């Protein structure tokens, strides 16, 4: 089955059949392939290594929970808070204040 193409207006069939391709200018073809960055390649390799990792070679390990003791400043702060909360006001004695050096009045000069 032969394909028939319509010839655009302004071009005659003889222009197509008598076309001389030697009059065309030479052109270099440039193929542009965007290569992945080293970061992308490294990430892909890491994923491949993770997927191919053999878990059978791993050994069981027990986790040790280490309790860290608070330092002296934290202990002192906690003691101070406890002393404030547990302070008994009923043991306080009543005190009266005496003014021994009164300031002069505004009216006296």
UniProtKB/TrEMBL annotation:
InterPro entries, per database record: Beta-thymosin (IPR001152), Beta-thymosin_sf (IPR038386)
Keyword Aminoacyl-tRNA synthetase attributed: no
GO cellular component term, pick one: cytoskeleton
Keywords of the record: Cytoplasm, Cytoskeleton
GO biological process: actin filament organization
Compartments where found: Cytoplasm, Cytoskeleton
Recorded superkingdom: Eukaryota
Family according to the record: Belongs to the thymosin beta family.
Protein name stated in the entry: Thymosin beta
Organism: Helobdella robusta (Californian leech)
